[in-house]
Amino acid sequence: MIDVKNDLINDLGLEEGFMTPALEKLLESNSKYLKDLRINLKNVLTSEYLSEKETALIALAVAVNNQNKPLESSFSNLAKEKGATVDEIGETVACASLLSSNNIFYRFRHFVGKEKYNTLPARIKMSIMVNPILGKEFFELTSLAVSAVNGCEACVAAHEQSVLQHGSSEERVLDAIRLAAIVTSLGKVIN
Amino acid sequence: MERGILSVGQEFPKFDKTAVVSLEKGKEFKNITSEDHKKNGEWLVMFWWPKDFTFVCPTEIAEFNKAYSEFRDRDAMLIGASTDSEFVHLAWRKDHEDLRDLKFPMLADTSKSLAEELGILEANEKIAYRATFIVDPQGIVRWVSVYDLNVGRNVKEVIRVLDALQTDELCPCNWQKGEATIEV
Predict the structure, then answer these.
(1) What angle do CA B133, B138, B140 make, to 5 degrees?
(2) Chain B residue closest to A31 (CA)?
(3) Which residues touch B57 (CB under 8 Å, ≥6 apart)?
(4) Interchain CB distance below 8 Å, B69 and A42
(5) Where is A61: in which H helix or E strand?
(6) Residue A57 — very low, low, confident or very high, per pLDDT cuts 50/70/90?
(7) What is the DSSP letter of A66?
(8) A–B: how many Cβ contacts below 8 A?
(9) Whole-prediction pTM value?
């Protein structure tokens, strides 16, 4: 199983010998899960409906949202390698950060369901949403993926509708969600 | 009458053949049998090429080699095979840069008995077509593809099929109203 671990570390471009307590436990027990994890990661990074640059950027957004340093550096390098510009990478980081505030805020409104909270102004600055350099559809798709990770029902429902209105497809949406799910699971072991 | 190509649902024939597994002196050869993958509960992916020392072959074999870890992660034993002898295989591996660090065995079906049983022998030259077999841990053929002599294969497609054949969505989260419960 050490081969699988080394290959996984290598796939992620992390330093040879990279180790975490969780990884150690999987290795000690010779857990087959490492194989599944590596297959899942490879599969979500190459999608029929998302380009490799897009998968790298969404993975980066999720890593930033999850405050995962090794994965953040790994996916930002991957995004660069796949042609993402410094500005696009910056926008992705901004998107992840902004969405985590929105997810908390709108989730609260949704949880409580009191009309008064809906009428009081949000007063959260969201200017980066107006004219994203990555395009509205992709910005929405990234927002949707981050919202799914953070578990805000109102945000997920709203962004899912919006992303489809901007010309996306259900296939693209589900690939982005699967990617967010796998990057999050990866982060439980690589952190 | 010629034998038809072995197909989905049929049992993969028994075999016990010599394969080249290394370039290290004294460790070059190893016997490989149809039981090896079953013992380990693994799948078997066996791909054939017509002749050693030809053009399309090394590219293709190198592609399979690059994807070696993909097959390993899917618990699949990868074997390359042709009707050349183990000595020809060894000479070819020594001769060709792309073949030196092969991670999977090159099976020598020198008697052509396995290719014959699989129904993949080309009529004139009695060499194997570019056939690929995916066999489950019980020894049943689950997928076959056969290409004409000069057509190269797509390794990604083989991995995609393997993924599709191997069960996923075992999680009860996927349970939908009206469905039987999932038993793993």
Answers:
(1) 40
(2) B73
(3) B49, B50, B51
(4) no
(5) helix A52-65
(6) very high
(7) T
(8) 20
(9) 0.84
